Amino acid sequence: MRSLYLLLRTEFLSLVGSFNRKGKTPVVVAAILLIIFGLFMIGTMALTGAVTAHELVEKDLTEFSIFVSITLSMIIALMFGVVNSTRDAKSNDTGMLLAMPIPKASIVIAKLLGMYLLDVLCTMVMLVPTLWIVCGEGKQSYDVFARGLLIGFLIPALPLFISLLISGLMSYLRKATKFGQMASSGLSIAAVLLYMFVVPRMSNLANELDLTPAESISKMKLIPPFYWITEAIYNADPLCILLTLLITLIPLVLAVYIHTRGLTGVEFHVDNSKKARSFKTNSSRMAVLKMEFRRYFSSTNYVMNTLFGTLAMLAITIAIAVQGLGVLT
């Protein structure tokens, strides 16, 4: 139990360390920055969920509002999961932990518990305001609220499973190809872009949506897993509750299995010998250029802050100059 506590504490300090710029930021300041960032994200997601639910409930699309909330929470949890999994694919922390006298079960539980709790937070931040509005403004029974809270703890199993699959794929690409790190950065950027372009616009889309309750059900059925979860929360359908348990618990078991099988450690000496051979087979100038090129694209922060950030600001400036400030809305 003590090993598990130390591993969870290490995970938190590692997250705090991501705000430590080149080791010059004090730990307390980094922790405060992390808290501010977390509160900002929680406030943004909760406000988005509440506004979207309010717009849909006013249009008598109460059940559809729960469906949209589940979809948004999945997107957000998957975004954080993808970014975390690509970061883990480039990290040697697992190999270092396996080299220590720490039970393998503790390593698995600590890593999965940290990812699971983050996904639960993303789900609840979107789902709780929606359920509150559905039960308050939508005049639904608070049994819906209770079922939503219980099932909300199962929903993160799906993005957790997908994130671990992506992490395994990124680890394989990193070892098998020269462009694995670039693929990890590209995937992280794609996940962040999906969040930036989809989530903030959901309230506007909900306001413009023109569906009848019957049409909304037909739309929900296009994504069966989300429809089953919605029916389990809203109508307590026994079959949908059973299907919800199956599509959440089975991926959770598979996630534990995949993560356990992937804990094989890291061969540091082999990696160093590969780097040495690459320098010998190329000219010194080409070897340095390739190393810097891979190092640049292996860091999502560098790409976002320099290349993508600059291009995005340039595109926004041109769009405002041509079309006016209305383009932002």
Question: Care to describe what's here?
Answer:
- It is a single chain.
- The longest helix is centred in the middle third of the chain and has 33 residues, at 104-136.
- The model is unreliable at 265-281 (pLDDT under 50).
- The chain has helices spanning 2-17, 27-58, 62-89, 93-98, 104-136, 142-152, 157-176, 180-198, 202-208, 213-220, 224-234, 238-261, 268-281, 284-297, 300-323.
- It has 329 residues and is mainly alpha-helical.
- Helix 3 (62-89) packs across helix 11 and helix 5 packs antiparallel against helix 12 (238-261).
- It has one domain (2-266).
- It has 15 helices and no strands.
Global morphology: globular
Rg calc: 22 Å
Got a strand count?
A: 0
* Low-confidence parts: 265-281
β content, as a range? under 5%
Level of helix content? over 70%
* Biggest sheet record: none
Number of helices: 15
Taken together, the total number of domains comes to: 1
Structural class comes to: mainly alpha
Q: Calculate the terminal CA-CA distance, rounded to whole Å.
A: 51 Å
What is the succession of H and E elements?
HHHHHHHHHHHHHHH
What is the residue-mean pLDDT, rounded to a whole number?
70
